[in-house]
């Protein structure tokens, strides 16, 4: 038979050790965030502009296509009904 009391007590010690009594340490969080942001490879201005234009163009084309299909189905449904 497994002693559940001993198992929960040992897992309780592990969970208490990973989180300090005062809660989350904001200083550690901010330092970790700064470290991670320093690893990011930021795009150049030219790359940012060209990719933004490509996204705007694709969204515009997709919206136009959906609009035209909607108008076509609307026209067909008015003819039928």
Query: How many strand segments?
Result: 0
Secondary structure: helix percent? over 70%
Q: In terms of structural class, how would the helical and strand content be classed?
A: mainly alpha
Number of domains: 1
Low-confidence stretches: 9-16
Number of alpha- plus pi-helical segments: 3
- How much strand content do the residues show? under 5%
What series of H and E elements makes up the topology? HHH
Mean pLDDT across all residues, rounded?
Answer: 83
Indicate the overall shape: elongated
Termini Cα gap: 74 Å
Instruction: Tell me the radius of gyration.
Output: 29 Å
Largest sheet: none
Outline the structure in words.
- The chain is mostly helical and 81 residues long.
- The protein has one domain (15-80).
- It has 3 helices and no strands.
- It has helices at residues 4-18, 26-38, 45-80.
- It is elongated.
- The N and C termini lie far apart (74 Å).
Task: Give a quick set of tags describing it.
elongated, 79% helix, 81 residues, 0% strand, mainly alpha
């Amino acid at each position: 038979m497994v002693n559940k009391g001993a198992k929960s007590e040992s897992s309780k010690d592990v969970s208490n050790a990973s989180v300090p009594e005062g809660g989350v340490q904001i200083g550690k969080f901010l330092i970790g965030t700064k470290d991670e942001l320093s690893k990011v490879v930021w795009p150049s201005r030219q790359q940012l502009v060209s990719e933004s234009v490509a996204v705007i163009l694709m969204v515009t084309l997709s919206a136009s296509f959906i609009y035209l299909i909607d108008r076509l189905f609307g026209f067909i449904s008015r003819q039928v009904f």
